[in-house]
Amino acid sequence: MKRLKCTISYDGTNFHGYQIQPNQRSVQETLEATLTHMHKKPVLVVGSGRTDAKVHAVGQVIHFDTSLNIPVLKWEKALNALLPTDIVVQRVEEVSNEFHARFDVIKKEYRYKVSRTPGRDVFKRHYSYHYPYPLDLLKIQEAMNLLIGTHDFTSFCSAKTEVKDKIRTLYHVELIEKDDELIFRFVGNGFLYNMVRILVGTLLEVGQGKTQPQEIQTILEKQDRTLSGKTAPGHGLYLWKVSYDN
Amino acid sequence: MKRLKCTISYDGTNFHGYQIQPNQRSVQETLEATLTHMHKKPVLVVGSGRTDAKVHAVGQVIHFDTSLNIPVLKWEKALNALLPTDIVVQRVEEVSNEFHARFDVIKKEYRYKVSRTPGRDVFKRHYSYHYPYPLDLLKIQEAMNLLIGTHDFTSFCSAKTEVKDKIRTLYHVELIEKDDELIFRFVGNGFLYNMVRILVGTLLEVGQGKTQPQEIQTILEKQDRTLSGKTAPGHGLYLWKVSYDN
């Protein structure tokens, strides 16, 4: 048995998220169905983590074990020929049997795209959050700087979050302006459920003047989800990159 | 009765083209169904011209007549609230009853997007033609310059074209490089069936060295569709702008 690590991108529009769920189209189920078809026996896929419905991936990482005798360089083509067009395998590498796509993650990058065109852009409706309201970008940046570092992010995750330890470290928090888009970039050692979407929702309220940048500090300290902003919609979010120790 | 001129954009992915066809989803049918629902009687829509299956529009123009007493400024919102999300009304203007969206066109702009990323970009699969092969852009530009002006475009339209007069004038023919994309821009007084897609297919063959730039001249003169290149796929094409005399 060989273990293969695959870097994949997907358009989340027509998926009910990464994880298998009954009667819903998911990325994991689609990957497993293709691999099971190839192997003529069930194959399980382990992803670096879940993504929600409508959320996209530029560089999600998964692993699986295979007994097939396909050279590693041919795997990319073989999988892309069989997978539906909304999943694209970018890279396949053979890794040690100890490698684990979820447990071995050391760093993840998420990006969130906000479209600021006055009218709706029909070509972006699935790929960025349309937010045509005035925004003070300097205030947003001020608030983003307060997020860098190690914090308890209880205020910035879904109340449904089950993990106990809500302390995470954000290494980079950056605002990129590109044409009519704002891109919120977050690089950290881990992210809680809905964390990026709640951070963006809160930062947009800062940009609108509804929340002062310095309040971010207080919201973090109070560890109370009701103090932060709305959860921004899934279709603006991209799992951009997953990093490992090798 | 008032005549309204609407500028609309649409994502062509899930349309079988602009024009009504039996048992197929079309832009015209979708617009007419919405307007008929609003008016409680059949409303006919006249477009500036057809677009094929998968072809997009940034600025298609249509007109229709209405007896409804909606102020012109409210029409945009009213239509966008009722139309499916893959059609967006950008502007609605009241025009004279003589205005005709097809007959009064004086200029049209089409753009064709080619994606040159080595691997497939899952987010562009419906929005640009993936062409990862080496291209000599100077040669393409040389060939494009030969297309400017008034020519008989028989060699560059579908053999199925029914119009007799195949003489058209191209005012601007331009190649734009943007990130990993090439954008072919054509502005002319009119376009024949499949003309832009055959022009782009031929220009890509020029870029690949399969056709010499100067051969464009000969191909135009010979008036023979078999001498030009393949028809590039519909999903890279955008009806960008339609201009009128007012």
UniProtKB/TrEMBL annotation, chains A, B:
GO molecular function: RNA binding; tRNA pseudouridine(38-40) synthase activity
Class of enzymatic activity (EC top level): isomerase
The reaction(s) this protein catalyses: uridine(38/39/40) in tRNA = pseudouridine(38/39/40) in tRNA
Record's keyword terms, sorted: Isomerase, tRNA processing
Record Pfam families: PseudoU_synth_1
BP GO annotations: tRNA pseudouridine synthesis
Gene3D superfamilies: Pseudouridine synthase I, catalytic domain, C-terminal subdomain, Pseudouridine synthase I, catalytic domain, N-terminal subdomain
Domain Pseudouridine synthase I TruA alpha/beta: 9-104, 143-245
SUPFAM superfamilies: Pseudouridine synthase
Active-site residues, Swiss-Prot/TrEMBL: D52
EC number(s) from the headed UniProt entry: 5.4.99.12
Annotated binding of substrate, by residue: Y110
InterPro entries: PsdUridine_synth_cat_dom_sf (IPR020103), PsdUridine_synth_TruA (IPR001406), PsdUridine_synth_TruA_a/b_dom (IPR020097), PsdUridine_synth_TruA_C (IPR020095), TruA/RsuA/RluB/E/F_N (IPR020094)
Family of the protein in this entry: Belongs to the tRNA pseudouridine synthase TruA family.
Oligomer status and interactors: Homodimer.
Biological function: Formation of pseudouridine at positions 38, 39 and 40 in the anticodon stem and loop of transfer RNAs.
NCBIfam families, sorted: hisT_truA (TIGR00071)
HAMAP family, sorted: TruA
Protein name: tRNA pseudouridine synthase A
Name of the coding gene: truA
